[in-house]
């Protein structure tokens, strides 16, 4: 009996030894596989981020350069008290061309590129990352329309916050003359000298309040229309993406235009000489001097032209370039 008990203990010890030994043999392999998987996942995410940054930068630069003269015209009317009309806008463009030449229609576009390239790169990349974080495409996520809107809004806030001083400089160059600012660097130098650091964030609050509905609506509308066309009609190409982006641009612009008026007036107040100090004061001053229609919706019809063009080009270019980079 004692012999049997000792044999049983010996077998148990041997079994335990074999199990431990087996685990020690398997463990390094399993660990290596897990490490390789994690590294591959990290590399894949890093590559996707780089693709998004590059595609976003190209998309933003192409879109903004295309509509730069219209954008400059819109800003000019937004900050002035002159009534807007299609004829007045055309006159501004023709007068600028006659007085300063064709290239002058793109005045301030260097500042625009300095701002829009990092802005668009950050916005599209942030959107992809927010989508992952919020698990927008997860199978467990139902009715994800709200999350799509939230992802777009957060992407807009992220990119706008990081590049806002460049946006302010671009607006000031667009409505100024050579005597006001000689270059982009001159804008920063004079802004800091006269207004300090706070001067670079004049108009920031209405900008953020405006970018939330604008970016949210744009990304949500584009994504929804793109999915609808693919799932119901089987269409997925650059032309379809351009059309979806155009509709998204019109929806986004309409949802936030009054706040765009307010931020432009605050950004350029040092040039116009009108002291728009904060959101509330600016709102009241615009309402009293220009009314609702001419005050808060001045130039909206031009935005319905340039907005869809720019947004359509931006979204379509981003998808095309990102897809191309993935296939390289």
UniProtKB/TrEMBL annotation:
Pfam families: Mito_carr. It comes from the Eukaryota. GO terms for biological process: transmembrane transport. The lineage of its organism: Eukaryota, Metazoa, Ecdysozoa, Arthropoda, Hexapoda. It is a multi-pass membrane protein. Coiled coil: none annotated. InterPro entries: GDC-like, MCP, MCP_dom_sf, MCP_transmembrane. SUPFAM superfamilies: Mitochondrial carrier. It is found in: Mitochondrion inner membrane. This is Mitochondrial coenzyme A transporter SLC25A42.
